[in-house]
Amino acid sequence: MRRGYFSFYVAVLIAVVALCAQIACTQAAPPAPALKPASDATVLQVMRGVLFPASNVVFAAQGDDPEKVEKAEDPATATDPLKSVYGGWEAVTNAGFALSEATTLLELPRSCSDGKPAPIDQETWKQGITQLKAAGAATVEAGKAKSQDKVLDAADKVVTACSTCHDKYREKTPRCTP
Fold first, then answer.
1. Looking at residue 114, what DSSP letter applies?
2. Cβ-contact 103, 129 below 8 angstroms
């Protein structure tokens, strides 16, 4: 008789575990918290603070071979990224990382310089972000390969990425207005 109860309890235990697993699997995961910018920087300030300096390193490396650029007299205080402590090809590689990582900053809701919200949900904006990630990756590859030919290719990608958004949201219309 006891043996019958044991089988019954095991069956009930298995059923309860199965039911709990089913409930846990069907419940929706809590929504991820919405990402917010760490500051109230506008798109223009992100451009001037991160993208413009990083792009300038790429553009400078087109004409000046980073391998041959002489370090500044005091590289620790150099304002030219190619001549600084982390200059030369390392500056090119780091610029590529900055370009790629800055795309995340441009995907967050923030204002344009005129106070309008950045059009982060529009296809052209998303296309520009994708192109900028590719430009950053090409710049990293150029820096690691120490190849000016690859820098030229990366610079073209930077120009294309920037133009994608600037043509629509900056040059021909008021900022952030498609």
1. T
2. yes
